[in-house]
Amino acid sequence: MSTERVVLVTGGNRGIGRAIAERFVAAGYKTAVTARCGEGPVGALTVRADVTDAASLDAAFTEVEQQLGPVEVVVANAGITKDTLLLRMTEDDFDSVVATNLGGTFRVVKRASKGMLRAKWGRVILISSVVGLYGSAGQINYSSSKAALVGFARSLTRELGGRGITANVVAPGFIETDMTAELPDETQAEYKRSIPAGRFATADEVAGVVTWLASDDAAYISGAVIPVDGGLGMGH
What we know:
By secondary structure, this protein is an alpha/beta fold. It is built from 8 helices and 7 strands; from the N terminus they run βαββαβαβααβαααβ. α3 (91-119) links the parallel β4 (73-76) and β5. α3 (91-119) runs parallel beside α5. It is globular and about 50 Å long.
């Protein structure tokens, strides 16, 4: 289904965010991505923004609104990791990950919701992770920030659900990225043994779920967590 709706994907210059932006471009959306550096895919408007800085986000949104129109679909994808075991984790390791992954989502969605309320239509899609509810040793900061997105989406659904706005969470498992490609073969094999599907996902498989959630077909779905993990989390 082709659409002229305006979508903004944070962190859309690489990995899953880039794949999501590519799918929206292909589906005919007016697509913009935020990036601290680098460029989004061909056909997308790239705007500079740091999700930990509300002023830079406001400027980015203003640029998108001027060039494409009000943002109707927002995909909060930008995130970082600083993995280490709890007893070695510094205050900064914890605070910076939460400030980006959770605080960044807060800032982006707050700014986007103003236009959605005026339009009485919107799609908020938060990119979490299987480890948000499954847990992962060495990722207390990351998994906490990703689990928090579930409460965020469900609270937002209660606030804005009557205004034609949905808020959902997509929780990817292991994805074929540059990061997983660098893992030793035996580590990759061990991970795959724990996944019922027996393989990693492609970033495009995550992107397909995200674009579907943005469509009219998903208008009555809100506050949901959709795993894209090959059965690893089993609906945790």
